[in-house]
Design goal:
The protein has two domains: 188 residues, Helix Hairpins (Orthogonal Bundle), CATH 1.10.287; 125 residues, Glucose Permease (Domain IIA) (Distorted Sandwich). It starts with a helix and ends in a 7-residue tail after the last strand. Strands 1, 4, 6, 7, 8, 9, 11 and 12 form an eight-stranded antiparallel β-sheet that branches. Strands 2-3 form a two-stranded antiparallel sheet. A two-stranded antiparallel sheet has the order 5-10. The N terminus is likely disordered. It contains three helices and twelve strands. It is 60% helix and 17% strand. It is of the alpha+beta class. The structure holds zinc ion. Keywords: Coiled coil, Signal.
Length: 351
């Protein structure tokens, strides 16, 4: 009776541990998915941001010549205004002069040129008078011409002002539209930047959480994992051994096989790392075993990996497919054995 009860309890315990693990697993993979999504979003937003900045710079460049032209026209307008004010002053003076002249002519009776000529008592007097009249007429004529020129100059300036205003109007509209667009874009960029910053914070928090989970995963499983005797993790022939190769340390062994062929766990253990290293290992995973031993599997493609961090794996369990990812010139498995964090020759461990 007692034995039955104990066995039942053991089953219940095992079951509840299993359930708890399944829950943790779901949370972890959800976290990973969220992180992936966030990082993708961030990348997209950075691309958009770059594009928007290029557009903004283009607009700023486009507006510069318009504003230069506007400034030129403004300077001309100002000169016109100065000219008009000066000429109007001159015109007033000239008008006053002419008035004075008219008053003088009127007062001296010089208005009636003909009557003066007619009333000449002698021919010599007539000649003297006609000479005088000529002088008077000439002076008046010059005065009138000057006055006319001033009035014309004023008209010309006013017309030029009108033309300049007509030219400025569309430029002003253009510049206003561009300034508004720039303001709109700048605002949108600011908003986007704030979004990115927020996303980065969220991503960072997610990464921290992921790291925390990974730490827990690697610390939690301190039990006895594996025998310390490893099986060959892939079927292919070993084409490259451990040690110096082409002037550099080869930290593992290579097993050539076709892409898609199985990679299995060399020993039982727990997955403590699963990540991408595009310039090196490609997608790789690390499995922790007992007694400071861990194994690393490289050059896989993420899509073929069947385990994630925190997973407990059995010796011989299918964990991924052989790939050609990262710094790799043909499909093969790069396999490393680490003892207390340092790469060692895997061969003595493989039985
Ligand atoms: Zn290798």
């Amino acid at each position: 009776m007692k034995r039955v009860f104990t066995a039942g309890l053991a089953i219940v315990l095992a079951w509840s541990i299993g359930v708890a693990d399944a829950g943790a697993e779901t949370t972890k993979s959800k976290q990973q998915e969220k992180l992936k999504e966030l990082q993708k979003n961030e990348k997209t937003k950075h691309t958009e941001l770059g594009k928007a900045q290029i557009e903004l710079n283009k607009l700023k460049k486009e507006i510069a010549p318009i504003e230069k032209k506007m400034a030129e026209y403004d300077a001309q307008l100002e000169q016109n205004n100065k000219d008009i004010i000066e000429n109007e002053k001159l015109l007033q003076q000239q008008k006053a002069q002419l008035n004075k002249r008219v008053v003088h002519l009127y007062k001296t009776g010089e208005m009636g040129y003909m009557s003066q000529l007619v009333s000449a008592k002698s021919f010599s007097e007539f000649l003297a008078r006609i000479e005088g009249i000529r002088l008077i007429v000439k002076t008046d004529s010059v005065l009138l011409q000057e006055l006319n020129a001033t009035a014309e100059a004023i008209q010309k300036s006013k017309k030029s002002t009108e033309q300049l205003r007509a030219k400025l109007q569309p430029l002003f509209a253009q510049s206003k539209a561009k300034v508004e667009e720039i303001e709109k874009k700048t605002k949108a960029l600011d908003k986007e930047l704030a979004n990115i910053k927020h996303d980065e914070q969220v991503t960072e928090a997610a990464i921290k959480e992921q790291e925390r989970l990974e730490r827990i995963a690697s610390q939690q499983y301190t039990g006895n994992y594996g025998t310390g005797r490893l099986m060959k993790p892939a079927a292919g022939t070993i084409t490259s051994g451990y040690g110096y190769r082409w002037g550099r340390q080869h930290k593992g062994i290579d097993m050539d096989d076709d892409k898609g062929k199985k990679i299995v766990a060399a020993d039982s253990g727990v997955v403590i790392l699963a990540k991408s290293d595009p310039e090196g290992y490609g997608y790789y995973i690390v499995i922790k075993h007992s007694d400071g031993l861990s194994t690393l599997y490289g050059h896989m493609y993420r899509s073929t990996v069947r385990v994630s961090v925190g997973d407990r794996v059995r010796k011989g369990q299918w964990i991924a497919d052989i790939g050609n990812n990262g710094r790799s010139t043909g499909s093969h498995l790069h396999f490393e054995v680490h003892l207390n964090g340092k790469a060692v020759n895997p061969m003595p461990y493989i039985t």
